[in-house]
């Protein structure tokens, strides 16, 4: 029956007002209307969200796992990038 | 017939409609055409059974005599079930399932819309809650009707066959039974004849958008709401009621 599989979509749900949409999983759908309807049925059955984003998986581009060392390891010893590295003047309150 | 009996019978009829369609749809569980639609039809099923449970619980209170939602759902026989004939028709295939769902959703939506404003508070509360769910059911079945009707040659043909076959079961919704008429006079029911133009308007619009046609034949089946059922209901009840019949009062 399925000579052609429906495209894959990634689903993002906003749990409540003020929070970010968060990736929750993926599903198959023929178009965007069906993707949102399917996301509602598959991923919001237990009050998980108030807003849905879907994007076709082919439009997501990921970093290469083999680049992991070059991309992320150099941040390891740069503690000066954290605000806690700096001593604040005593006069400064509420930081 | 006493007012309390009319109320009881009317609640039963409402509950049986959603119970039997819920039970039918439940047959799709783990057999859906794709995973996402398997879950979608099961969600709809659970909504319908949830609505039926609330109504059966109310019916049990009206009846008294130690009746519970379970004794009412699981110990009545075919002739005591008052659901419309459409809802007991077999699943056959996905086209029949979508068309059956759509015909009922379009009616169910109009019915609940009226019931939530009528005088019986319990019925009105249940209707108000279920209306939100049914709004989605109607959106879901409308979209699938359009998608498959205005789809490939094969999907279009299958949808038209389902519409042609199920059309004769739609008229029954709008022919009031004695119970419906009396319940309407009590102020707790809908005047189903008045719902027909609203139903037809929606059905025509969606079927047209799906590039399908409404059959020209006028013959309409009738009887389910009075307990005169097709041969299918007995099989549904046999499966649904087996455990309670074999082990009365069993819990798990």
Shape of chain B: globular
What name does CATH use for the topology of chain B?
Answer: Ferritin
The helix fraction of chain A, in percent, is 10-25%
Biggest interface, chains and residue tallies? A-B, 13 and 12 residues
**Neighbour order of strands in the largest sheet of chain A:** 2-1-3
Taking the alpha carbons of the first and last residues of chain B, their distance comes to 38 Å
Helix and strand run of chain A: EEHEH
Q: Which topology of chain A does CATH recognise?
A: Ubiquitin-like (UB roll)
Which class of secondary structure composition applies to the elements of chain A? alpha+beta
Q: Superfamily at the CATH H level of chain A?
A: Phenylacetic acid degradation B
Major sheet size, sense and barrel closure of chain B: none
Task: List segments of chain A where confidence is low: pLDDT < 50 over at least 5 consecutive residues.
Answer: none
- Oligomeric form of this entry? heterodimer
Ranges of chain B where pLDDT stays below 50 over 5 or more residues in a row are none
CATH class of chain A equals Alpha Beta
In CATH terms, the superfamily of chain B is: Ferritin, core subunit, four-helix bundle
Taking the sheet with the most strands of chain A, its summary is: 3 strands, antiparallel
């Amino acid at each position: 029956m399925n000579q052609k599989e429906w495209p894959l979509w990634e689903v993002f749900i906003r749990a409540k007002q003020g929070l970010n949409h968060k990736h929750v999983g993926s599903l198959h759908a023929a178009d965007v209307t069906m993707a949102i309807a399917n996301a509602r049925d598959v991923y919001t059955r237990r009050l998980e969200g108030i807003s849905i984003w879907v994007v076709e998986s082919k439009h997501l581009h990921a970093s290469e796992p083999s680049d992991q060392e070059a991309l992320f390891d150099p941040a390891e010893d740069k503690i000066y990038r954290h605000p806690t590295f700096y001593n604040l003047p005593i006069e400064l309150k509420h930081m | 017939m006493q007012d309390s009996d009319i109320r009881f019978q009317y609640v039963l009829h409402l509950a049986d409609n959603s119970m039997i369609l819920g039970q039918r749809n439940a047959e799709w569980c783990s057999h859906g055409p794709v995973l996402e639609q398997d879950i979608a039809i099961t969600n709809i099923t659970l909504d319908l059974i949830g609505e039926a449970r609330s109504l059966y619980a109310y019916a049990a209170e009206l009846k008294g005599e130690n009746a519970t939602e379970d004794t009412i759902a699981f110990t009545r026989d075919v002739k005591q079930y008052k659901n419309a004939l459409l809802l007991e028709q077999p699943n056959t295939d996905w086209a029949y399932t979508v068309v059956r769902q759509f015909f009922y959703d379009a009616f169910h939506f109009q019915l609940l819309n009226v019931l939530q404003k009528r005088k019986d508070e319990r019925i009105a509360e249940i209707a108000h809650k279920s209306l939100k769910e049914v709004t989605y059911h109607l959106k879901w079945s409308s979209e699938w009707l359009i998608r498959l009707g205005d789809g490939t040659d094969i999907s279009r043909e299958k949808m038209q066959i389902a519409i042609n076959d199920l059309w004769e079961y739609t008229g029954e919704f709008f022919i009031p039974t004695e119970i419906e008429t009396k319940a309407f006079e009590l102020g707790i029911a809908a005047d189903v004849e008045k719902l027909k133009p609203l139903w037809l308007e929606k059905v025509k619009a969606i079927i047209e958008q799906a590039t399908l046609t409404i059959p020209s034949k006028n013959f309409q089946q009738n009887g389910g709401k009075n307990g005169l059922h097709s041969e299918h209901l007995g099989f549904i009840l046999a499966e649904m009621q087996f455990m309670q019949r074999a082990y009365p009062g069993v819990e798990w």
